């Protein structure tokens, strides 16, 4: 028998047991008062705007009222000021655009976990071994890790301390990579405390090699299958004094008029080999502004010489759920995550067992009899009428689907409540699962490069009985995100039905007479007038039905 296979099985089992214990510990804290030092003093969430902040606060209050979160914790939501954003619009995972990635469903728990609970569970051990400070983490990734018995992840050093995970070089090109100070200790362990010489932000493979960030796998003790690997970032800690210095700088430069990245702009300033050159590199910036380089250089000078401590979690996994394709794969087709985290194919849902492939996923939904779900499909926060069929690799989010409806393969459909002329109405957006919503064009002559389900937008509107001149965009640039393609309807069911008919017309290359009285809006515009309270009421109605019938 291959000894490497036994080693890998051993580490997988350790990861499973450690994850199960974290979930058990967090579940024991839900709905009860936590003692000082037992859990976080404050849990802070950032929102895109004031309306989303209100929705976040409503959701957190409901979680506390339902005893889904620990008591005695300050749960705070801070919204981005108008203009420059800490985060984007979740264009790569549109189902999270309105209500936020931190409230994305995860098929665990009763009631259903969302990313907020999962994050709190996976880091439930950290507060006991942390000096005053701030832990920074993202809402669209999952980190699982195990350490040896008796060891602890201690966040008690001055400056910054980051958690690091062994990853393939390809992952390093889209994340942060640590260049570590060489260690004289040749013995491998599940956790190592090391010093970082330099932090690389989304580097090329050539840069990783040139800077000494690449390590060779030792087959006798390392769970990663790749021959070469790098250590990538996920979560980091800032001690209290350093956070106060950063806050002091913010007061000096306020109001902030450029986009600052809490990972790239802070961590690249740390370590003895940090160079000011990164401040001029704007390749990964969403929007470049005149004052960006100047602010970056102020940050660099403030943090220069400060240590970047790294905790290597050698038996750990990092899963990114920031795109629709990633979300679908990890919840339906990723056997590793299923075994390590224990995700379910049906979580907090009711109805007769649908005719489903083993790799589909249903969450917080109500299904009527004779529904069928194809392989790789995800249904969340939805009502499916009798006999509804959902194709392979498709996503339904917050939808009310009429009986007998058939959803094709490879589509994403998401219903939103919006306010138009002081009335609550509905829109259902529909995209191909791999459509590029972020691709922008400026000239009308370039519109043929924008495709919906593989069909140019100009062709799409002709299938719907419209003229090419009827194609409008709601933003400064033309993209699928700003294309006014989706009808506004009086009720949620009709909204889904009309959008599905439009989608089917494009896929079948056949005409569909779109009712002339329907206004068309874009996903971008829908978010500007979103009615989050009504969207949450729809989820509350599902919650009521599920708890009453389960």
Structure write-up:
The chain is built from 14 helices and 30 strands. It has three domains: 12-130 and 321-341, no CATH class; 147-314, no CATH class; 344-549, no CATH class. The strands form eight sheets. The chain has an eight-stranded mixed sheet with strand order 14-16-19-22-25-26-29-30. Strands 5, 7, 8, 9, 10, 11 and 12 form a seven-stranded mixed sheet that branches. The protein has 550 residues and is α/β, with parallel strands linked by helices. The model has no long low-confidence stretch (mean pLDDT 92). The protein is globular and about 70 Å long. Helix 1 packs across helix 3 (115-122) and helix 6 (240-253) packs antiparallel against helix 8 (292-303).
Please render the helix and strand layout as text.
Layout: H1 3-29, E1 42-47, H2 50-65, E2 74-79, E3 105-106, E4 113-114, H3 115-122, E5 133-136, E6 141-145, E7 160-167, H4 169-172, E8 176-180, E9 191-201, H5 205-210, E10 215-216, E11 228-239, H6 240-253, H7 264-267, H8 292-303, E12 308-313, E13 316-320, H9 324-333, H10 335-341, E14 346-347, E15 355-356, E16 361-363, E17 366-367, E18 372-373, E19 378-380, E20 383-384, E21 389-390, E22 395-397, E23 400-401, E24 406-407, E25 411-420, E26 423-432, E27 451-452, E28 455-456, H11 457-463, E29 486-489, H12 492-508, E30 520-521, H13 523-528, H14 532-549
Parallel strand pairs: 1-2, 7-12, 14-16, 15-18, 16-19, 17-20, 18-21, 19-22, 20-23, 21-24, 22-25
Antiparallel strand pairs: 3-4, 5-11, 6-13, 7-11, 8-9, 9-12, 10-11, 25-26, 26-29, 27-28, 29-30
Helix pairs in contact: 1-3, 6-8
């Amino acid at each position: 028998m291959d000894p490497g296979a036994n080693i890998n099985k051993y580490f997988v089992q350790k990861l499973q047991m450690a994850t199960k214990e974290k979930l058990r510990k967090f579940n024991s804290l839900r709905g009860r008062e936590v003692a000082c030092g037992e859990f976080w003093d404050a849990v802070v969430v950032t929102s895109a705007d004031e309306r989303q902040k209100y929705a976040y606060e409503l959701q957190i209050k409901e979680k506390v009222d339902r005893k889904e979160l620990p008591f005695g914790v300050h749960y705070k939501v801070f919204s981005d000021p108008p203009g420059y954003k800490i985060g984007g619009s979740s264009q790569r995972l549109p189902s999270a655009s309105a209500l936020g990635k931190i409230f994305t469903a995860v098929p665990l728990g009763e009631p259903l976990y969302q990313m907020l609970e999962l994050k709190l569970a996976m880091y439930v051990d950290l507060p006991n071994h942390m000096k005053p400070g701030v832990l920074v983490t993202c809402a669209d990734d999952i980190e699982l890790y195990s350490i040896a018995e008796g060891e602890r992840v201690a966040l008690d050093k001055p400056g910054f301390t980051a958690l690091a995970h062994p990853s393939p070089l390809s992952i390093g090109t889209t994340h942060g990579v640590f260049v570590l100070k060489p260690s004289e200790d040749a013995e491998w362990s599940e956790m190592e405390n090391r010093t970082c010489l330099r932090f690389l932000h989304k580097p090329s493979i050539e840069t990783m090699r040139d800077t000494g960030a690449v390590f060779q796998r030792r087959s006798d003790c390392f769970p990663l299958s790749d021959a070469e690997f790098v250590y990538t970032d996920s979560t980091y800690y800032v001690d209290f004094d350093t956070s106060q210095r950063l806050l002091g700088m913010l007061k000096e430069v306020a109001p902030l008029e450029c986009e600052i990245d809490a990972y790239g702009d802070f961590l690249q300033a740390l370590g003895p080999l940090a160079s000011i050159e990164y401040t001029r590199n704007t390749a990964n910036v969403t929007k470049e502004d005149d004052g960006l380089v100047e602010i970056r250089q102020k940050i660099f000078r403030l943090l220069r010489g400060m240590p970047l401590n790294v905790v290597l979690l050698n038996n750990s996994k990092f899963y990114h759920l920031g795109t629709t394709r990633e979300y679908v794969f990890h919840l339906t087709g990723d056997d590793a995550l299923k075994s390590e985290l224990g995700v379910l194919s049906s979580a907090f849902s009711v109805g007769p067992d649908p005719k489903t492939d083993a790799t589909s996923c249903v969450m917080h939904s109500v299904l009527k009899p004779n529904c069928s779900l194809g392989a790789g499909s995800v249904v969340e926060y939805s009502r499916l009428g009798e006999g509804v069929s959902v194709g392979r690799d498709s996503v339904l989010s917050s939808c009310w689907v009429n009986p007998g409806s058939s959803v094709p393969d490879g589509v994403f459909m998401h219903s939103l409540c919006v306010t138009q002329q002081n009335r609550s109405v509905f829109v259902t957006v529909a995209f191909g699962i791999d459509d590029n919503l972020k691709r922008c064009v400026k000239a009308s002559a370039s519109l043929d490069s924008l495709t919906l389900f593989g069909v140019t937008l100009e062709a799409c509107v002709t299938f719907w009985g419209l003229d090419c001149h009827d194609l409008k965009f709601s933003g400064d640039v033309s993209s699928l995100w700003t294309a006014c393609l989706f009808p506004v309807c009086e009720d949620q069911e009709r909204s889904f039905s009309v959008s599905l008919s439009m989608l089917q017309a494009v896929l079948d290359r056949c005409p569909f007479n779109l009712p002339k009285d329907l206004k068309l809006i874009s996903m971008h515009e829908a978010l500007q007038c979103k009615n989050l309270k009504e969207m949450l009421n729809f989820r509350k109605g599902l919650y009521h039905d599920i708890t009453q019938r389960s």
